[in-house]
Amino acid sequence: MQDIRSPSLFRLLTDELDELIQSSLAPLQSDEFTLSVYFGRNSAKRYDRLSLQLFNLFQAPLLRFRFAKTENGWQIRSMKTIAVSGVPESHRQFFAEAAQRYFAGRATSPKKKTRMRFDLAILHNPEEKENSPSDEAALKKFIKAARDLEIRAELITKDDYGRLLEFDGLFIRETTSVNEHTYRFARKAATEGLVVIDDPDSISRCTNKVFLAELLTRHKIPVPETIVVHRNNHQQLIEQLGCRAS
Predict the structure, then answer these.
(1) pTM greater than 0.90 (yes/no)
(2) DSSP for 90-151?
(3) What pLDDT tens digit does each residue of the chain (246 aa) get?
(4) Which residue intervals of the chain bear CATH 3.30.470?
């Protein structure tokens, strides 16, 4: 509830989902649009992906977003939670189906053949091919290694944020960033008591290269020559690093 009221998180929401918002609302002819999200779904299937992403960020069962078209494209003007009484009569049946589908959870998935000690979520990005921390072969080996330890490992993507509490641990195997969903996954999992790799503190520290350089230097850990670049020293980089200008 506090996240929904947070202006800073609201701005992050807009920035992160901007491309999806623009593509989803592009066909609209009006200058305003209201999107009702029921357990991550909307009665119009074309808004399913946008609804799911919004629900993943703010896991309130009933949400209402108001969009407005500006010179820079569609923008979120407001968002709020709504009560069941606020669901229009024409949406009631769809709302009931969305709720039933959500609470069914894993009941729709195949039953396990053997009981495992723990459940592990492996967060990956199928579209991250060239620079992915783990390729498809590596992910399969992780799953097999987990099975040998009586851990049921499942590959998840950023669309599965709402399922995090189904697991006992989170293993992030895609490139992490503080301003993207990987950090949000790590923070949520750590807050709920899951075992997390990479944990949110590690992500924030390791992606801050200035902090990392200072930390390694302070502990006298050998690193390549490192220079923090700013507007007052960029002209001296070639001289300091011993490079030759082309």
Answers:
(1) no
(2) GGHHHHHHHHHHHHHGGGGSPPPSS--SEEEEEE--TT--TT-SS-HHHHHHHHHHHHHTTE
(3) 555 555 555 555 555 688 889 999 999 999 999 999 999 999 999 998 899 888 887 778 999 999 999 998 998 888 889 999 999 999 999 999 999 988 876 544 444 456 789 999 999 999 887 888 999 999 999 999 999 999 999 999 988 888 888 899 999 999 998 888 899 899 999 999 999 999 999 998 888 888 888 889 899 999 888 888 888 887 777 777 776 555
(4) 2-107
CB atoms within 10 A of CB 22: 13
Kindly list the strands in the beta sheet with 62-70, ordered across the sheet, starting from the edge strand earlier in the chain.
Answer: 32-38, 62-70, 73-81
Residue 77's contacts (CB-CB under 8 Å, 6 or more residues apart) are 66, 67, 68
Among the four given CATH numbers 3.30.470, 3.30.70, 3.30.1360, 3.30.1300, the one describing domain 2-107: 3.30.470
Q: Which residue has the tokens 């009981």?
A: 115
Can you read off the two tokens belonging to residue 139? 């992910």
CA atoms of 140 and 154, how far apart (whole Å): 10
